[in-house]
Amino acid sequence: MDTTDIEKKSLEAHVELCAERYRLLELKIENVEKSVGSVKTVVTEVHEMMHEMSNKRNDQLINWGIGIIGTLIGTVAWLAVQYFKNS
């Protein structure tokens, strides 16, 4: 900010205006900190949700794999029984 004419003539006015400027800067910094905190909270929640979804998906794939392998083993066993029964 440019200095005003009154600031050039009065040290007290300069000090008061600087104090007001710093107070406004501190308020803006506090608002930015709150916003960053909110963003951090959202990012943490999204990360946790993605991790949970990944774990669920892994469990689902494992269950499907176990089911498919079990079905294949059962089919092979049935075929083996049929083969030896007819031999």
Counted up, domains total: 1
Strand content: under 5%
Class by alpha and beta content: mainly alpha
Low-confidence stretches: none
How many helices does DSSP assign?
Answer: 2
Strand tally is 0
Largest sheet: none
Order of helices and strands: HH
Rg over C-alpha atoms, rounded to the nearest angstrom: 36 Å
Percent of residues in helices comes to over 70%
Question: Roughly how many Å apart are the termini?
Answer: 99 Å
Shape: rod-shaped
Write a brief structural summary.
The chain is mainly alpha-helical.
Describe the structure.
- With 87 residues, this protein is mainly alpha-helical.
- It is built from two helices and no strands.
- The chain has one domain (5-86).
- It has helices at 5-9, 11-86.
- The longest helix has 76 residues, at 11-86.
- The mean pLDDT is 93.
Task: Describe this protein with a few key phrases.
87 residues; 2 helices; mainly alpha; 93% helix
Topology readout:
Elements: H1 5-9, H2 11-86
